[in-house]
Design goal:
single chain, 494 residues, alpha/beta, Amidase signature (AS) enzymes, eleven-stranded mixed beta sheet, 15 helices, 37% helix, 12% strand
């Protein structure tokens, strides 16, 4: 294995070494592919590994360096892509049988942007089907295991991406966050996970779940690596009608600014039902920020606790509309029938899993005549209350903090028969999506030998102060709570 890819080398260090000619991108990518071959048979982070394409991309990076050029800020850094990001010529399943065998004819904008920055995509990662889930147990292609404990979930829906970074298979990964699907698995896997401001990162080429909530975000082992990846993928895209035209100062430049004078609110409502270890982590992180010069106070925002119920009306309604396109005609799976209607019904019945069907039916119901105002309309009014509650808090605070998840990683199968218990896993992440704000989960401490993440939340385009606080929290955290780690999988190494 190439020395540059051994712990605790960061993505930034890899890129620096490749750009300086100290190591070849091919060596780095070969090391990543070796590690994937050694561990992923047991972890199941990846649905597709694109070894040949990755090595060819690495050779192209090396050719630029050899010619005296600059291949980009992420030169030679191996990167994993959640399998709901379209990749030209590479199967994209969204974790669903209904897209089995579908190969997109185009790349998502973020896929093109990271390649232009020199990063090397090595494969597509597992996820809950159509990003609907909190444990990566809803994938049609099997469960992903948490590298800290193979009997536990990695979180979801971006569990494959989070676990791949936690296990050191790749230094960086991309996921999508509709109700916490980057931050919650980041917390459960001991890595940094970022949900950017809605519209800051292009959604073009992201397979839609709930279009007013979806956002693509980075996974990394460190705050600095996550900031570097966010700086690359942020920016206006005319192909995405929701893309913001407002620029954002690169967050990487703000990491050393500290938090002196920063006003930090600890969300007291988030501390009521969280586990004692999660509450303790938030209290300790607040103390770290206070010692660094921040002004820290508790704040009650009761409207945030309404977010879960509103989300599970808004998101399924949008999913019902978005997933209507999978009809057995244009994409993936087709199950024949005597007529078009039965072909459509059979294809959807066989192609969608139980959780996706549950949400489609719920969404169709709340959008139906006679129920729209009572359910969907009311949920949108509650969504406004959540945004208003945040707005009032941000009149007094620059950032807010709280637990990312109510608990550490739970055992595989523990919540599969209780959808409500599973949905509660996203209790503290959903409000941010409803408001369109940014948030980041930072690994902070250990409980039961498992990582606990602390969440930093900020108002629209507040990524700068958010990352400043995250950097300080990371500096005061238990270094043992952060990946990458050697996966605890007996017999995993060949």
């Amino acid at each position: 294995m190439s020395a540059v890819f051994e712990y605790p080398t960061s993505a930034l260090e890899i890129a620096r070494a490749v750009r300086a000619g100290e190591v070849r991108a091919r060596e780095v990518v070969e090391a990543a592919l070796e590690r994937i071959a050694s561990f992923d048979g047991a972890l199941h982070c990846f649905l597709t590994v694109t070894a040949d394409a990755a090595l060819a991309a690495a050779d192209a990076v090396d050719a630029v360096v050899a010619a005296g050029g600059d291949p980009g800020p992420l030169a030679g850094v191996p990167l994993a892509l959640k399998d709901n990001l379209c990749t030209r010529g590479v199967p994209t399943t969204a974790g669903s049988r209904i897209l089995e065998g579908w190969v997109p004819p185009y790349d998502a904008t973020v896929v093109k942007v990271v390649a232009a920055a020199g990063a090397v995509a090595v494969g597509k990662t597992n996820l809950d089907e159509f990003a609907m889930g909190s444990s990566t147990e809803n994938s049609a292609y099997g469960v992903t295991h948490n590298p800290w404990d193979p009997n536990r979930v990695p979180g979801g829906s971006s569990g494959g991406s989070a676990a791949s970074v936690a296990a050191g298979l790749v230094p960086l990964a991309l996921g999508s966050d509709t109700g916490g699907s980057v931050r919650q698995p980041a917390s459960l896997c001991g890595v940094v996970g970022v949900k950017p401001t809605y519209g800051l990162v292009s959604r073009y080429g992201l397979i839609a779940f709930a279009s007013s909530l979806d956002q693509i975000g980075p996974f990394a082992a460190t705050v600095a690596d996550a900031a570097a990846l966010l700086d690359v993928i942020a920016g206006h895209d005319p192909a995405d009608s929701t893309s913001l035209e407002v620029g954002l100062e690169p967050v990487s430049r703000q990491l050393e600014a500290g938090v002196a004078g920063l006003r930090v609110g600890v969300i007291s409502d988030f501390l009521v039902d969280a586990s004692p270890s999660c509450v303790a982590a938030v209290r300790a992180a607040a103390e770290v920020l206070s010692r660094a010069g921040a002004v820290v106070e508790e704040v009650a925002i009761p409207a945030l606790m309404l977010g879960l119920s509103a989300y599970y009306l808004v998101a399924p309604a949008e999913a019902s509309s978005n997933l209507a396109r999978y009809d057995g005609v244009r994409y993936g799976l087709r199950v024949d029938g005597p007529d078009a209607a039965q072909m459509n019904a059979r294809s959807r019945s066989k192609g969608f899993g139980p959780e996706v069907k549950r949400r489609i039916m719920l969404g169709t119901y709340v959008l139906s005549a006679g129920y729209y105002d009572a359910y969907y309309g009311q949920a949108q009014r509650v969504r406004t209350l959540v945004a208003r509650g945040f707005g009032e808090a941000y009149e007094h605070f620059d950032v807010l903090i709280g637990p990312t998840s109510p608990t550490v990683a739970f055992e595989i199968g523990a919540k599969t028969q209780d959808p409500l218990a599973m949905y509660l896993s996203d209790l503290y992440t959903i409000p941010t999506n409803l408001a369109g704000h940014p948030a980041v989960s930072v690994p902070f401490s250990l409980s039961e030998g498992l990582p606990v993440g602390v969440q930093v939340l900020a108002p629209t385009l507040g990524e700068g102060p958010m990352f400043r606080a995250a950097a300080v929290i990371e500096h005061g955290a238990d270094p043992g709570a952060r990946g990458p780690i050697e996966p605890r999988l007996a017999g995993a190494v060949r």
